[in-house]
Amino acid sequence: MHARVLVRPKAGILDPQGAVAQRALAALGFAGVSEVRIGRLIELEVADADALPEMCERLLANPLIEDYEILSDTP
Amino acid sequence: MKFGVITFPGSCDDRDAQLAAARVGEVVPLWHADHDLQGAEAVIVPGGFSYGDYLRAGAIARFAPIMTEVVEFARAGGPVMGICNGFQVLCEARLLPGALLTNTSLRFVCRQVTLALVNPNTTFTRAAKARLSIPVKHTTGRFYAPPAELDRLEAADQVVLRYAPGHNPNGAARDIAGIVNEAGNVFGLMPHPEHAVDPLTGSEDGLGIFASIAGGCR
Amino acid sequence: MVASSALHEAARALGLSDFETSRIVELLGREPNEVELAMLSLLWSEHCAYKHSKLLLRTLPTEGGRLLIGPGENAGAIDVGDGWAVAFKVESHNHPSAVEPFQGAATGVGGILRDIFAIGARPIASLDSLRFGEPTSERSRYLLDRCVAGIGHYGNSIGVPTIGGEVYFEAPYEQNCLVNAMSIGLARAERLIRSAAAGPGNLLVLLGASTGRDGIGGASVLASAELGESDEAKRPSVQVGDPFAEKKLMECSLELLERDLLVALQDLGAAGLTSSVPEMAAKGGVGIDIDLDAVPLREADMEPFEIMVSESQERMAAIVEPAKLDAVLAVCAHWETSASIIGAVTETRHIRVFRGAELLGDLPLDVLVDGCPLYELEPERPIEPIYPTPARVLDSTDPNEILLALLASPNIADRTPLFEQYDCIVQSRTIRRSGTADAAVLALPNGRAFAVAIDCNGRRAAADPYRGTVEAVLECAANLACVGARPLGVTNNLNFGNPEKPHIAWQLTESVRGLGDACRALAIPVTGGNVSLYNEGAEGPIYPTPVVSLVGELLAEPALAGRLAFASEGDAIALVGPFEPSLGASELAKLRGEPLPDRLPACDIASVLEAHATVIAAVSAGLRAHDIAEGGLAVALAECCLAAGLGATVELEAVAEAALFGEAPGGFIVSGPREQLPGRIIGTVGGARLRIGPIDLPLDRLREAHAALAALFD
User: Is C626 a catalytic residue?
Assistant: First the structure.
């Protein structure tokens, strides 16, 4: 089955990539963008969705600096 | 002193670490897929781009077969030094606290920097100079730990090297360039001491770090 | 037999001319099918066949001296003593970089690295020669930023130091940027391997990444046509690189060669299997059968011609004796590199493409590889100027303001923000890092060292293609002299516009003539190189840009390899060489918005070479040296001061603008203890200001101006 995991920088971690994207949006004339943070989408074909949390804890995310979210359209 | 230097797929500065270690001791190359430290008395996890830095720098290398033995060796008190990518691997393996994040500049930076030796009493720094000129070269070298953890590290003398004022190349918290673990036997640093051992190619200030490790040999 | 109109139409869409299509039918005695036509269109493209340049290139000196491998192989190589060989080559990736600059530049680096280890040399260094439009253009800033990032990404990840290069900003490159990637490798001379396939019954093995749709019709087709408005449509044609895969492939290939497990090795570059396999067979006088079903694919439903022309990166083709196959597969497994038997060597002198048992295409090599017509150029010296006059950006006649404007000009400003993005020290061989000397210097395993630089001033070549190219070679040799090295071999990348236009044909012809004459004067062979044509668009052609790179042996002791910075307070400064500067085609003339002169002054090559020898001797004795190039004497002196953090006081008899800012070959600044200096003493090192006649500026202001490029990378 198809699983999707979002991995994001933890709140409070400086995200220079997000900051650059925010400035670029402003430079393009998009007003009112007050914050941008950039994470990753990981898509997997898995046999067993129950293993996903452990996959995230052990490899796909670094819990010190990242939060992960198994997207709700994944059973 | 027998230095074991690990090569992962994608390691680049393994040969350089071997050359540096060979100046003060014996070198045994260690292959990532083996479960054997081959009698190494100190282990070096070198710089480079293990596994292409894919997913996160060091995230995949930490699970290499040889790392089982490295973790065991470290838990038993053996000296382990992680340089640049090696520092990243040791943090991912939880042998060291904290994590390395992308440089604030978002760019790779290769530059000779000046370091202040904060803790000269470790296995790795006993024979090192108080101020060291050593190159850095990385995209992901910004050391991070939550503020409470940083306070703890500083109070426990686990901060070993700091970038001298004006020399912080990556935005690392509190200018931290290198740390040891609580037991003092695992050392991680972003600068490359193996590229500062020969006056022909740079400074010699990194030699003291290798000599310190060799001096701890029984 | 006559080609049908249907065939002509299909062939035209693939870039073949009607003449070429008719020629194909005539030589084959039949019409080619779809797979065969695709293969022919690529091998007969400009990029693969060099059809407009090969006749000219044959006039270059390609033998003698320390040559080990000359043009025609994956890379050239020279003997650097004690059984060591240095392999090197430069190649362009211009059109792909204009379309997708990060990946275009990255895969350019990847491609030239493969050419180096394909001949059995371990890549030990890279250099890059870049050209963009003025940085006032947002597009050019974007291309600069992404190309530098791409070069760094690939070179740093694979552990090969990027130790030098150059970048120029000129309006004629706005629509056609240039990315020339050079790489250098080290090998024992007797271990160098060639690419000729041999031994009917031997196996064709494909190593490395799986084959996908990358770059289908990519590099080759793009390089055979001018870029138009619809770049977007060409985007799917760009290759995506994986330096991690190449690192494993490289270590695998080098180990296979070290263990003598291969008969031949070839990298897969432009046109993929279609160019590599026939070239291996043609060189060996044999044939090769390929089975497409055996090629590992990244996408399931690829058509035969797609598999044949795919430019998926990080792949090599090897010829293996059946008895050695198991050993080969074991080494590949150790390095996590895929290896698939996809064909075999035959005696047929044909390339036959199969899908399982089904024969899809069968072409004789003498048609496929050797049948492409070679065209004589029809050069005509242009009567009218080709290039628009640059914009005037400097009005002042005050020498202080002129010097500051030159130091801040994009072609002269400090390049540290660029080269700090490159790892220049991995592999522990770098004796002189970027920015510290006029050439890069690397240690050899025998305790000696070699030097390398890469140069070309396209604007001066535009003024005078013959003399401008001679100057490029002399400039490069001058840079080597300033570290104490003597040139041993040259590689070159000729970047020009559309050679079917008579004035471009003239530029190319004159440039190659200049290249040949200069190399003969230096008595060094051309070991190989690359030609990139059709670099023009609606706005016109690029400047003729014959990029040259010289590799030389360090005659000075490695520890004394030259540096450009002044050494100490109190050192004397001398001007060495037959330096006759003039302002025509200079950087100052450009800032003033002056049109190009219609020729450059002649120079006395013999006197210039004598000056090189003098400089080498000076450096060998421990003196400092810096070549005078863009911006003239004043800029060169400023550069020596800034590198040292020391000022200087210089007195000149003539302080006219030409003396201060004029350009010409054969001028050097040499500094050190007064009694040791050759040439004419002109000043003294010391203080915190630079004074040259009417010029009087503090170092701080020079440094501020010189840091102009940093803003482009913020």
Answer: no
